[in-house]
Amino acid sequence: MSVLRSEGWIVRPSFAPHGPTSPVTLLMDETGLTQLAGDPVVAWQTPWSEVTSVRLVRSRAGVSIIAIVGGVLYQWRRVGPMGRTQLEEVRAVLVAHGARELPRGRRNTALIVAALVTLASFGGYFGGLLNHPGTSSVVTSLESLNLNARDVAGTWSSSSLASSSLLATLLPVPGQVQSVNPATTSTAPPQASPFALAGVNFQRCLSVASVDDRIFGLAGTSPRYEVSSPVFYSSDLGGVQVESTAQYYDSTPSVALDVAEMSRPSFGRCFAQAVGDELIGANTGVTPQLSKGQNLATPTFVKGWSRGGEVMVSLPSLQVVNAHLVVIEEAASHYEVTLFALVADLTRARATLISLANELLARVTSTSAVSA
Questions:
Q1: Distance CA 229, CA 160 (A)
Q2: Confidence of residue 250 (pLDDT cuts 50, 70, 90)
Q3: Residues 41 and 188 in one domain
Q4: Which of these, 287, 344, 337, 347, lies nearest to 308 by C-alpha position?
């Protein structure tokens, strides 16, 4: 085949530390993918054998290509509109080399489901989901609780794309405030859904009935607002990805009841296992019922409530093998904040994760004092 040339892309992250991310031109032929980035142009050539987990995503925002190269997840986003003919040419080349196409309808549905599942997992079943303009002081305070670039200065990169990390399959689209009316009549998700199966495993592990369970079960209340941070990632510490989500509840007694359940001795490992079940189930269609999670000690340097857990997860089809999924939950007053992480070497990454957890706890306790 002749070389297919496509201009007008942006890549995240850069292929080299502090390297160019735009403008990007992609060249594709039978041997591989070549990226021409920056001005003056820097070229990277990669054979197709080293480009894995390729996805072509079409959404209202435009066209994106997602792939793993050298163990790093990259995303190329089209800056402007893409003609139908060129889109079909790009699609044909990518599909010929193992790509999966996510059409517009399927992708939007997946994002909606991901947001609903997460809202349910932190406060029982749900209803009445809608976007909120995010103008209130409560929402402003909530947004300030999450991880930001100052927390991970140095060699870290970030992405606000819902497709940029496995963690994003569990959380609302980064930066988009979700609003729920807690008074809305709620309905249970399908019994065979990853969320429902994860809940069964969680309740069995924690020895709590569904009717009394405030996390996955019928006893919980939904947050009024929820917003997630971007995904931050680094090749340091053996490879690490982190993301946080913050929630605001109308009632402080509701948060106190959540904390009472989450203070049970086995909560950390049980919750990490359930989140791992949901993560794997959402990406493979098979929920594994993980059982080898562990509580994770989270020493805190500020006064506040915190619990953590971790479990090993593997998704070979997405180049994730024996990674540690870490979940640290924190709460005070009207707020609940959760730190999620995927790390290759927990021993090396532990101190960094504890530091990030302490930063989040300091914010949630400070914000709670102001709102009290």
A1: 8
A2: confident
A3: no
A4: 337
